[in-house]
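Title: [Solved] Transposase Tc1-like domain-containing protein 3D structure

Original question kept below for reference.
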Amino acid sequence: MLAYALAHPQSSTKMISENCDLSKSRLWTILNESGAHPYRSTPVQGLLPKDDERRHMWCNFVMNHLADHPTFLADIIWTGEACV
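Solution (posted by the thread starter after getting help):
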């Protein structure tokens, strides 16, 4: 079952249980015991055509600053989780 789930990462738990001939509750038990978690992609924001230019401007901005200041990204992207 775990090999099937790894080979087919976009499969739902329902599909995996049907293809592996397991009940959904048994499948969830195996997933939980192995430390695996089902994955579902949830897009929360779509890109617009005008976003392309803004992304290029940001990349150029970062690349120019990295040339002079190699720790630029580490200095501006900081969260409490980064220090744990």
